[in-house]
Amino acid sequence: MTERFGPYELSELLGRGGMGEVWRAVDTRKARTVALKRLPAEMTGEREFEDRFRREAHAAARLSDPHVIPIHDFGEIEGRLFLDMRLVQGKDLGAVVASHGALAPARAVSVIEQVASALDAAHDEGLVHRDVKPSNVLLTPSKRTVGPADFVYLIDFGIATGAALGTRLTQTGVAIGTAAYMAPERFTDGVDADPRIDVYALGCVLHEALTGRPPFPGRDFPSLMYAHLNTTPTAPSRITDGLPRGFDDVVARALAKDPDARYARAGDLAAAARSALDAGVTGGPQRGVETQVPSRPERPSPPPADPVRAGAPRPPAAAGPPGFATPWHPGPPRLGPTPVPLPMPPPTRSPRGRLVAAAAALPVAALLLFVCLAVAVYLFAECSTRTPSCVGGVGAVVAFLVAGGGTASAIAGLTMAGRRSPRRAGLAWAALGGAFVLMILAAALGG
User: Boundaries of each Protein kinase domain copy (predicted)?
Assistant: First the structure.
């Protein structure tokens, strides 16, 4: 049974909410099927609700973004305000999530991108939506053969306000909107005209689309207000298995308590969500984010019974499920076998280097020769009486200063010989000195 409302024939009630009822209707003047929204009869004459209804009409009329349902006509019939809009067949995001659960990440990102387009268009016109939530996101089947499956509309600009108008409150003094998606500053400061409150709400919608539930639990206004002001939402990847972790950072920034820490525009949030999706699908780093992928520690395993020969083909590593990148966890660096240093060839000296080495060795050789000759002269001059203590003492001192432990036995032999014949020992000391000189020069020139 149809109802007549001015030139419109109302055939089916499509929905009813706090700010109006929407009918499928036919505009008999233009023979066009439309969606007709009219203010409920009980709200007629209530200035606050009438002003809100008019704001929706004026806001939608100012926007030409394809993701805002266009307004055909606006006015008043029989004392009731109405909106004549394009009829769009679809379901709102809240109903889709309630019946089917979380969206696939690619679908969720596509929805957010289209809502962000409508929000940026509104913000550029100085309008703040103030009630972005899943039930105000309408999903319709896309007519395009390529691209996303949904064509998305952002609806209900009824509580939209201009940035220049400042805060808008109801007659009871409570900020209007839906508490589950309201930014913290709306509870404390009454801020309603900052576009970043829409960015915050869009972040809540993204979280719900990815996980199937709102970011903050709560059944009443006080508990939701406390959650928005004081708690951190659970990361989406901890709720939805296989979800790329890049979405955690996107949601966390969008839901920052400080408005200055959020994305400046809805489009920036959407671009970050797209980047997180691309990084999760391809396994690459997010754009603009420096990512370090540490190696995973491996457990040592026994060598195989038939080791693979060098150059033989190795079996490919097991691949993860398609479409998802394996998440990494920071860990200690991989421990491999301790490298064994290769022997280095001895350095070779140029002829000039040999001359420099020989020149540096000459003072040492001259000193050793002087010591040996001095001992020989001493033996000849002072120890002709064959005093054992004299010859032995001199030999011991020289053995300690010149030869060290390795040649001490040879010098001790000369000392014993000096007890029998000091002259022979003197000659032997002189010969030993000459031998030292030759050894030092040979080492310097040969190195």
Answer: 8-277
